[in-house]
# Entry
Amino acid sequence: MTDRDQPEGFPVHPAPGGRVPDIETGGAVPVDFVQDRPPEAPPRSQWVDVWRQFRSHKGAVAGAAFFIFIVLAVMLGPLIWTIDPTYIDIRARNTGPSLAHPFGADQLGRDMLARMMAGGRTSVAVGMTAMLLALSLGTLIGVLAGFFRSLDGPLMRLTDLFLALPLLPLLLVMVMLFRQTLATNFGPETGIFILIVVAIGLTSWMPTARIVRGDVLAIKEREFVLAARSIGTTNSRLIGRHILPNVLSPIMVSATLGIANAIITESALSFLGLGFPPDFPTWGRLLYDATDYLQQYPERVFWPGLAISLTVLSVNYIGDGLRDALDPRIRGR
Amino acid sequence: MNEAPPLLSVRNLRTHFVGEEETVCAVDGLSIDIRRGETLALVGESGSGKSVASLSIMRLLDPASGRVAADEIVFEGEDLLAKSEAEMRAIRGNEIAMIFQEPMTSLNPVYTVGEQIAEAVRLHQDASPKVALRRAAEMLDLVGIPEAAKRVHVFPHEMSGGMRQRVMIAMALCCNPKLLIADEPTTALDVTIQAQILELMRTLQQQIGMSILFITHDLGVVAEIADRVVVMYAGRAVEDAPVEAIFEQPRMPYTQGLLRSVPRVDRFADEQEPLYAIPGSIPSPSRLPKGCSFHPRCPHAAEICRRSVPELERVAQDHHVRCVRWREIEAPREVPA
# Structure
């Protein structure tokens, strides 16, 4: 160890006489040299550590790279590939991949690449927003149920009730009831976006709530919660600072599964014709349109299917890596 | 000596746990006084109600199951039972602090130790995060952690058990409390670390001038640190006395039994009588025997012991015992070292 390695303000433990004791000779090592020494590394920022741990998870890095690629492609892609996804080039209908249409063109001659990008934008946006909604709702209900014993029964029975509701008829009714109102207030696209996000969010928070409740119940009995209460911590601070960070990993896992679930549910809704209007592409809608031509043009199912699967997979890996990176016990030193 | 009012005075504390089928009385009529600067040890087997008593005083029991009642719990002239939850929060950590048995689980794994000590400071003193963290470093230094300024950035899992218990002590003492409740703080530590922690607590007690309520089942630790001792059995105080009297003239058969079951290091193995064990085990609080709750295990039990619960009787100045036959039972002649 030289002075150069040592950060300022943290003096080296001096070896008396400036001599480093020779361990191999088995000679007496000066006492103040073997005494308790602090960790060698200088104080470092927590986020640097998080980033380092995240980077060491290969799958997470690959997932993050792919997810960023997808997001960039659907956000910026239309600026480069300027064909309107609704433009009908009737002479190109049902053609395979070509220079003019790299992913081919559909039964009306619309460019598949442009439609994939436009569809991806909707699907990813729906997935993220619906996941955030479901996650906040699930976490809120789970924490309240786990922390306050008097709320546990009512909230968990509510969760059971939602789990028991038949999902598709419920969505059908919601779309029937609110589509018109929302469409007139926010315009057809935004209206249906809100409707779908809320519908998915309201019907998929239950697993998160159950997982979070279970974890909160376990964490609540740990001694550090009692210790925190014994220094006079308020309930809200106890939940925010001591309990939530410790249930972060199941929440992260729920989040990644939630995005995947939301994209797939949106696909299913569009597939059933309950989602976005027919001329408004989403990945699910593209999949739905392509199934009619499955036997003649199987590649048209392939592209949106691949995009959905890979996005879901990459998000799952990101969640896995994040969970490891955010847990100081796994992160280690 | 007795003129000054005690720092904490608990009169007739009763704590019940309400279950589905039965109500269990974990602490039954406990009365203790802690004077300023004094260390009171609360001694007893597992299940004798020592921890429950301390949590009751702090009002940290879940109100849904634990019912706390007492004639009074007076701390610094104020009745803790009459306080609102918010007023109690202002007292916890600030005036009365607590340390726990398991240093391994008493710290939140997701925060650095500095942040956790700083939290206590920020809760009770209007300090900025920076000031609080500096205070945390001072406290770590005070409890004997080397290079404290650097160690505040360390996570609990990077520390050993003894270090973590020091952190817990730092956390408890950072607001200079008047009373420290230590719930078996040395039980999970090995003997050398135990000695260090006890020494540390004693030094800090002198520096800060606080009182300590020390809960333990370890008589060796009691001899080390206590000024006065309250022995608990099955939720009741059975003997209270200054520490010398407990070790030299224990009057309650239970205390005598406890002392006889500790191996002696001051005698050679061949001079030593076989180690004594109190027969049986502590009764479940839901099925306490009639009369004196110790009588089924007591070598001196008589008919009268089965009839009624004995009162605490005064033996000498500051020495009380809950045994009807204490006059007939001889105090052990020999004085243990």
